[in-house]
Known about the structure:
The chain has 11 helices and no strands. It is mainly α. The protein has 2 domains: 9-43 and 157-219, Endonuclease Iii, domain 2; 52-151, Hypothetical protein, domain 2 (Endonuclease III, domain 1). The longest helix is centred in the middle third of the chain and has 19 residues, at 105-123.
Amino acid sequence: MGKGxxxxxxxxxxxxxxxxxxxxxxxxxxxxxxxxxxxxPEPRSELNYVNPYTLLVAVVLSAQATDVGxxxxxxxxxxxxxxxxxxxxxxxxxxxxxIKTIGLFNxxxxxxxxxxxxxxxxxxxxxxxxxEALEKLPGVGRKTANVVLNVxxxxxxxxxxxxxxRVGNRTGLAPGKTPEQVENRLxxxxxxxxxxxxxxxxxxxxxYVCKARKPDCPDCPVRDLCLFEPKTQPA
Length: 235
């Protein structure tokens, strides 16, 4: 999902944002996050990693792939490789052997080797805690940079993936026709006390409750705050 590509009316409707859905009220937004926080006080990324570098690699590999699939591929990789220097020693062909079960693995391997070379050459082998620097790395876009800044460095960024885009639009929490519009809206409306973990709460809510094809409205902890109709009914 490109950050600048606006969705068509049909695509937007499938994301759950008919024009009739109003925006959520500020008081309801605070309650929305307080309930998600009560259910999961310390949310974590479902991607496995051991340091900022392996997190960066995992997020790059996760594009158009599931976290489960990436974790399977990196389980052995991250036992052997935890630094960009070690990745360069492994080499592109060696990396491909580890990640060949992941979609687009050839391109991803090329990008991981290239970004590792840059980290060694320009940053002493460290991952920079800077958005502009991260987005200049091969295979790293705004969403990936936001994940690394949030998870590795504790910055209150919000990476808008398919799940967050859907939840933001469907509920009325943060309407927008592009991921960047949804991100900007979330940064405006999410109370500061919830912003650090908002990214994970929204991803997990979209992944397991507010699902694309059939949201689990009957068991949703924020059902009464959500402005999307019609909601699914108990089986």
